[in-house]
Amino acid sequence: MKYLVIIGDGMADFPLDELNGKTPLMVAEKPYMDMMARQGLCGHVITIPDGFPPGSDVAGMSLFGYDPAKYYTGRAPIEAYGMGISMADKDVAFRCNMVYLENINIEDNATMGDYSGGQITTDEAKVIIDLLNKELGRKEFEFFPGVGYRHIMIWRNGEWEMTTTPPHDITKKKIKEYLPTGKGSERLMEIMRISQKLLSGHPLNKKRQESNKVPVNSIWLWGQGKKASFPLFYDKFRLRGATVAAVDLIKGISSLAGFERPYVKGATGYIDTDYSAKAKKALELLQTHDIVYIHVEAPDEASHAGDIKEKIQAIENIDRKIVKTLYESTPVDTRFLIVTDHATPISLRTHYPCPVPFAIFDKGKSYEGASGGFNEDIEGMTLKGEELISLFINKRDLST
């Protein structure tokens, strides 16, 4: 049997007045997801254990079959691993966002204008990373370019027992209450302030503003943690895996699990990602691997932006360009898992810890599943993430 896991990042939501009390999942036209839910084994999965931050790092680990309580050391080290960054045991990785701060020059009044720096491109961001390494890089600190606004800073022999806040949690909020605190936080603040001076008036920002784009006027450091380590997925489940993803976080989890994670041209992490290219790559990988994960970031990004229309479009794109393609192009003995990693309610513009829907579907078979299709009100059992993956892989016949 072959296994396909399709993760729509942040697809789950709250009912919205703008959608007459329905969620984006409920109103989106997604016939293939709904069919798999109606003919499959359904329920809810708890991807965020109590006491853990409700992010794709924790939820992603859970959906790969790893209990965060055993293996979680922080978000940034997972991304660092996915980027091939070498870390010593005493090193600390930080996520380094390119951000736009409103009222940056007014003391105590700066707000998080855009956690993605106006969706800065990877090429633009590399210019800034190179500048940071030139002006701030030394034996103690080093900056590494990632994708879009998502990058990594390594603090060699650094501090990590401090409190930091994801910038996407504080959009349009004053940053004063969310700045790093605790041991070592003053060093982070020093670096962030220097970055603001370096970026003020930078030619890249002048060019962006001429194109009616917001400037990237600061970095934001968060998600710190020490070197991560997982047991191999093959040792747990005896399946050889691969992942199709755009973002380094999911690539990091995949790498730690021992999965192949090829580059996919056109995979951006946004609404404009090349869904068809992802589906094509997944089909290629399925020829030589037992299980393939396909991760799509677009619904989550739309939620952070508060864009209902874009979130619905992202869900429909996943159904039409990925789920449909995989369904029509795979052999009969293929099992699908449709799932979202966590909720990202548009009304909150950030992640929320709650059970999220899943559907397991065996191609060529039909069971009495969820009559209402795939959405937050799906009927069925409730499982933990690692329990879901074990069920998905080990249950030979969904009717037993």
Kindly describe this structure:
There is one protein chain. The mean pLDDT is 95. The protein folds into 2 domains: 2-73 and 229-394, 3-Layer(aba) Sandwich (Alkaline Phosphatase, subunit A), CATH 3.40.720; 92-225, no CATH class. It is built from 14 helices and 14 strands. Helix 3 packs parallel to helix 14 (385-394) and helix 5 (75-82) crosses helix 10. It has helices at 24-27, 31-38, 56-63, 68-71, 75-82, 122-135, 185-199, 203-210, 233-237, 248-257, 275-286, 298-304, 308-329, 385-394; strands at 2-8, 41-46, 92-102, 111-114, 141-147, 150-155, 162-163, 181-182, 218-225, 241-244, 291-296, 334-339, 356-362, 381-384. With 400 residues, it is of the alpha/beta class. The strands form 3 sheets. It has a 7-stranded mixed beta sheet with strand order 10-11-1-12-13-2-14, sandwiched between helices. Strands 3, 4, 5, 6 and 9 form a 5-stranded antiparallel beta sheet that branches. A two-stranded antiparallel sheet has the order 7-8.
